[in-house]
Amino acid sequence: MEPAFTPTDAARLPRWTWRDHARGTPAEPLVRDWLGAVLELPAAAIELHRDVLGRPRLAGALQGFDVSWSHSGDGLLIALGDSVDVGVDLERARPRPRALELAQRFFHATEHDWLRGLPEPDRNEAFLRLWCAKEAVLKAHGRGIAYGLDKFGLADLDGSLAMTHPHAGLGGPWSVHEWAPRPGYRAALAWRGR
């Protein structure tokens, strides 16, 4: 089991774990097992349901917590927040030859401009960083990417992505933590207080 990540800037913020996950197998049993271990409850006691938009929610005595998970390749990333909205995204690194085209079509204009200005070898990594962070924010927000990847802009500030062009409908303020949980993977965790 991976040690849980707890940001040092405030108490009670999200924890995460990595799990090996075979493609095509349900993630929810692994999520319940980890939640049970962290919350010191039997996995069967974890009340987990999906809201009308399909977002997983904890219910009953656990409704003050929030959970998010993402799987890619052979990995599963699970995040748990206490009194915060939390979202996580995991992506396996691979070439994305249409990254600039996708950014122009779906990302905020400032993000497209940033990517366009990068040397080709750096562009793929930057695109993946943006994608993960944006998806994590939108998962935590509760609407997912259907809300619009272009509705807010992120920028690299001293090596970390931060929201520089917020959208009023997203609320906030948002915190984003990005990292490589395993070689060949990129991840982002986003959260905001409730």
Features:
194 residues, alpha+beta, Ribosomal Protein L22, Chain A, 2 domains, 3-stranded antiparallel β-sheet, 4 helices, 10 strands, 26% helix, disordered N terminus
Explain this structure.
The chain has 194 residues and is of the alpha+beta class. The strands form 4 sheets. A 3-stranded antiparallel sheet has the order 1-5-4, covered by helices on one side. The chain has a 3-stranded antiparallel sheet with strand order 6-10-9, with helices on one face. The protein has a two-stranded antiparallel sheet with strand order 2-3. A hairpin with a 2-residue loop joins strand 4 and strand 5 (75-82). The protein folds into 2 domains: 15-89, 4'-phosphopantetheinyl transferase domain (Ribosomal Protein L22, Chain A, Alpha-Beta Complex), CATH 3.90.470.20; 91-193, Ribosomal Protein L22, Chain A, CATH 3.90.470.20. The protein is 26% helix and 32% strand. It is built from 4 helices and 10 strands, in the order βαβββββαααββββ. It starts with 14 loop residues before the first strand and ends with a strand.
Outline:
The protein has 194 residues and is α+β, with helices and mostly antiparallel strands. The chain is built from four helices and ten strands; from the N terminus they run βαβββββαααββββ. It folds into two domains: 15-89, Ribosomal Protein L22, Chain A; 91-193, Ribosomal Protein L22, Chain A (Alpha-Beta Complex).
